Structures are given as C-alpha cells and as structure tokens.
Amino acid sequence: MQDAEFHSLVDELVMQLEDELEDYPEDLDIENSAGILTIGFPNGSTIVVSRQIANHEIWVAAKSGGFHLAYKQDDWICGTTKENLASLSSRVVTEQIGREVSVLG
C-alpha cells in the first residue's frame, strides 16, 4: 500500500468514527488534530486513535490496552486480538462509556 492510499483510508475512517461518536447522547470530548483522534469520556477516560505511517497501521490506546491494526483483506485487523476495527472500537467504547454500543458497524 502506498502512503497516499493509507492516508486516504485512515482519513475516511476517522471522519466516520468522529461522525458516529458526535451523535451519542453522552458529552464526549472529541478532538482530531495532526492525524490523532482523541475521545474523552465523561468518566475521565480517553481513547486515542492514531496512524502509524511507517508501519501503515492504526494504533488504538484505550483503558483496556494498546492495539495495533494492519489493513488486511479490506479490513483493519488487530494483530493480538484478531478483532477487526469495528469490533475492537465497539468493545473499547462500550467499556469506557458504560453502555453497550456498536461503532463503525
């Protein structure tokens, strides 16, 4: 994958994630700056989604840990949990928001 394609995929993904989270009734603090999406929750916890250009990966830092996702067969897959990004995002947002949610689904 070329850098331009990587950036395009991640930009689209971050915009979709931002749009979905802004519709939640909870007062989430969402900041997108320099390719890093930071999501602050009312309980003080944070999720950070960042792009790792050199590896062409997305990294997700959440209360339950750090996750590295690579683009494989048209989806972002976590190397350790084997979850796709939608499943992983739904799980970590659910853990931090305190109610079950479906993200990027």
Please state the CA-atom Rg, rounded to the nearest Å: 13 Å
CATH architectural group:
2-Layer Sandwich
Report how far apart the termini are. 24 Å
Globular, elongated, flat, extended or rod-shaped: what is the shape?
Answer: globular
Strand order of the largest sheet: 1-2-3-4-5-6
Q: CATH homologous superfamily?
A: Frataxin/CyaY
Just give the CATH class. Answer: Alpha Beta
Domains, number: 1
Q: How many strand segments?
A: 6
Unreliable residue stretches: none
What class would the helix/strand composition place it in?
alpha+beta
The number of distinct helices, counting runs of at least 4 residues, comes to 2
Q: Strand share of the residues?
A: 25-35%
What does this protein structure show overall?
The protein has 105 residues and is an alpha+beta fold. The chain has one domain (3-97): Frataxin/CyaY (Metal Transport, Frataxin, Chain A), CATH 3.30.920.10. It has two helices and six strands; from the N terminus they run αββββββα. The chain has helices at residues 3-22, 85-97; strands at 29-33, 36-40, 46-52, 57-62, 65-72, 75-78. A six-stranded antiparallel sheet has the order 1-2-3-4-5-6, with helices on one face. Strand 3 and strand 4 form a beta hairpin. The radius of gyration is 13 Å and the shape is globular.
Brief summary:
The protein is an alpha+beta fold and 105 residues long.
Kindly list the characteristics that best describe this protein.
single chain, 105 residues, alpha+beta, Metal Transport, Frataxin, Chain A, 2 helices, 33% strand
